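dumping this here before i forget
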Amino acid sequence: MKNGRFILMVLFFQVIGFNMYAQSINEEIENIILYDTDISYELTPGFIIGIIDGDSTYIERYGSSADDRRSKLNEGDIFEIGSITKLFTALLIDIAENEKLLSKGDKLNSFLTIEYQNPRLNKLRIKDLVNHQSGLPKRPYGFGAKEVDSQSPYQFYTKTDLLEAYSRFVKEEDIAIYSHMNYALLELVLEHVYNKPYYQILSEKILIPLEMNNTFVKFKEDKGILTAGLDRSGSKVAPWQFSSFEGSEGIKSTMGDMLKFMRANLGLDNNGISMLASNNFKDNHASFNENIVVSNGWQILKINKRLNAAIHTGSTSGHSAFIGLTRETGTGVVVLSNSTFGTKDLGLLVLRMVNHNWKRKPN
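structure:
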């Protein structure tokens, strides 16, 4: 009987301690928003922050939905994550390599039919695309001619358009350029080696194994299932439609699912995906920013001799997202917001806070 009471007391104080820590995190984030950012709730009505700290997970909600200014967002709301999609595509390339379907050293031209091969880019490798070392532009030249609706830029740009643009491209210099085109081409490579559409590969290889049940590319039902998002004029916008570039910016997800993806990249789960993701931060390449290197799609910011922050952002016409983690301390932050303006540097500032102003010691 005494042992039972003791266990209950321990559990009670554990719960109290967890709640106090969660409250402290909420207060710290509110101070960051108030004093360290210029976030406007007029421009970005609401956002949701997810934090992983080892075995603990915290979710904090701020502002409101764009539909109803009295309602808060929740972890089941679906957002477009924009360019964070690239991290999933980079991981799919790792999975395909692990399955002996390709090598990152393979030449891109070898995956294309002869009519779309570019002889001027014979040396271009898969790993160059993954790490933004290809020299290809952000979007293909002539892209604007197919952009019927600026609020949905990829709706009418087909994969044939992409291949024709690649086959005509002439590289002027070898520089690191952050390129959506890189990942649109990687989407085609994956579809070639698996002989399946991108959305199906994504589902079978990542979403189902990680139980990310509310993440998708293709809409299975009405497009109204996404949480409402605002454009730069403050107007509600429809979600992006894709004829190509799904592997670059096409994924929609929830906070609950993104935290599962985060756990895999932190190596906190004992599965094959976590094992592959553990190599994401070892192959550093020059970046478009002198303070950042690129490793398997992630942008790696060297904080100090002990800590590195791996980050990525994404935005669409109506949503904005951030993901960042520090593997050395087992911490990570996801931010999903309901406007294209987003939350600026908030995600990185929260990651810094969780890491005790970058003074936290590695695990």
